[in-house]
Amino acid sequence: MINPEFKRNLWLQFSPHRLIAMPAILGLIFFTLNIASKNFSSGIALDSVAVILFVGIIFLWGTRNASNAIIEEIRDKTWDQQRMSALTPWTMTWGKLFGATAFNWYGGLLCLLAFVIAALARERSMILSDGLTLVALGILMHAATMAFNLHLMRSDVRAVQRGGIAWAVVLIAYVFMPSFRSVADSSVVWWGQVFYYRSFLAASTVFFAIFAVFAAWRSMSSALQITTIPWAWPLACCLLAVYIAGFYDGAGLLWIALLLSVAMTYAALFSEENDIALWQRVVARAQAGDWHGLFRNLPIWPTTLVLSFCFALLLQFGNGADLPFSLPATIASLSFLTLTLALMLLRDCCVYLFFAFSGKSKRVGATTILYLALINGLLPFLSKLMGLNALAIFFMPLHIGNGWLMLGIAALHALLALALLGWRWRQQALEDDLPQAA
Predict the structure, then answer these.
(1) 133 and 49 in contact (C-beta within 8 Å)?
(2) Residues in Cβ contact with 407 at an 8 Å cutoff, skipping those fewer than 6 apart
(3) Which of 7, 29, 357, 408 has its CA 20 to 30 A from that of 184?
(4) 164 and 123 housed in the same domain
(5) Is 350 within 8 Å of 418 (Cβ atoms)?
(6) Rounded CA gap, 274 and 356, in Å?
(7) How many Å apart are CA 431 and CA 189, to the nearest integer?
């Protein structure tokens, strides 16, 4: 039986007019530009034209349609109906992912066919790798857009409705793609092994496309209120660290893993739902000894927070690892730097939860960023201007020359933040008890 969600999207996407118009217009474009390339020396090759059209139809238009598949459900207030349907998260995921973009793939595959024919006529090499890269990158962009929209749906519906996620994905793809451009006979060294550049690019793009589809499926499960254990987020962090470290022949693997876990903790913290009711459920499960229920209710950001402490401890008390990049000598030469970074991450998480637990602020992320900017930037700068160097070090301890002092200040920051968070928790508990007492 065909996927009902996929079938519904096919009915919405296709009509006799669209089925005829797409190949007719593309054929006219190819025919016109083919004649132009023969008459003008500066004409664009037909295979390049096919790639440009593929980019427009799949990367730009298709990414927008993948985003609209979620946005329109919210605007039309039909998402609750989808949530109550009998469709599984995976059925819903691939039904929307490939159904909402089916017409784009119809045009994109026609462009891909023209690319293959024109490339064969020009005796171009690595045609299969280039075609696979284009298809995988299209799926990657569509799935990533859907995953981001579904992830943000529970915490910030307005951000999803504005439709900026699709263009953010396009911008990220545009920024990172130039580093992948290379001549046909170049190679890349990864974990000490030499690979043909374009073959490696194709394999990498397929890997990340599978990654993105998996993320869309997990996000769909959460959006449909089907709880899952958050093992995939820390696993993604480890896999990304291994992938990136391969370009440095493994040097700095733990450092890369630490920095990735810190970045992913911030990303998840500021994009997830973190109200006090959620954490009351988590605490209740812990008090009841229901560890399976605890992990099913736990947000994903604490997993990479714990992971950052694990990597920090491995770097601190293990043999360590070389930095894969350079830092100022005042920072790079310090001991206890890794544990200090982990403690400052813990402090920032507590500050975020302090504002989230109030239940009054609708802009928890913006408020947290403002206060962290004051603590880490403005107050140390102001203290230095006033000649209060000790106070400046207290606010930002990373640049001092004593590792123990740096670690102590970071630990004090974390303890103060935990104390404030505990106070907020007790205050909210008292407010919850007042109506019951009345």
Answers:
(1) no
(2) 336, 339, 340, 343
(3) 29
(4) yes
(5) yes
(6) 6
(7) 60
Q: Please state the length of the chain.
A: 438
Map residue 187 onto helix, strand or coil: strand
Residue 102 lies in a domain: yes
- Indicate the residue among 279, 310, 341 that finishes a domain: 310
Q: Are both 94 and 141 inside the same structural domain?
A: yes
Based on its alpha-carbon atoms, the radius of gyration of the chain, rounded to whole angstroms, reads: 26
Q: H-type helices in 154-196, by residue range?
A: 157-161, 164-176
What is the pLDDT, as a whole number, of residue 270?
93
Check whether residue 213 and residue 275 sit in a common domain. no
Is 259 within a domain?
A: yes
Alpha helices in 100-126 (DSSP H): 102-121
Note whether residue 192 is domain-resident.
no
φ/ψ region of 123 (left if φ > 0, alpha if ψ in -120 to 50, else beta) reads left
The structure tokens listed for 85 are 């349907």
Same domain, 269 and 299: yes
Look at residues 300, 337, 305, 306 and name the one whose alpha carbon lies nearest to residue 321: 337
For the chain, what is the domain count? Answer: 3
Same domain, 165 and 54: yes
Q: Which of these, 256, 277, 259, 275, lies nearest to 267 by C-alpha position?
A: 259
Q: Are residue 50 and residue 174 in the same domain, yes or no?
A: yes
- pTM (2 d.p.): 0.90
* Any domain includes 416: yes
- The reply to whether 35 and 152 lie within a common domain is yes
Q: Output the pLDDT for position 37.
A: 76
Burial of 11 (0-12, 13-18, 19+ CB in 10 A): exposed
Distance CA 313, CA 258 (A): 10
Using pLDDT thresholds of 50, 70 and 90, give the confidence band for residue 126.
Answer: confident
- What does the DSSP 8-state code read for residue 44? P
CA proximity to 132, closest of 205, 191, 221, 238: 205
Report the DSSP beta bridge partners of residue 189: 194
Residues spanned by the domain of 386:
326-429
Same domain as 330, residue 303: no
Average pLDDT, the chain: 87
Structure tokens at 421: 């968070």
Q: Give the strand pairing for 193-196 and 187-190.
A: antiparallel
Domain boundary among 226, 258, 277: 226
pLDDT, tens digit, for every residue of 376-416? 999 999 998 998 888 888 898 887 667 888 899 999 999 99
Estimate to the nearest angstrom the gap between the alpha carbon of 148 and the chain centroid: 7
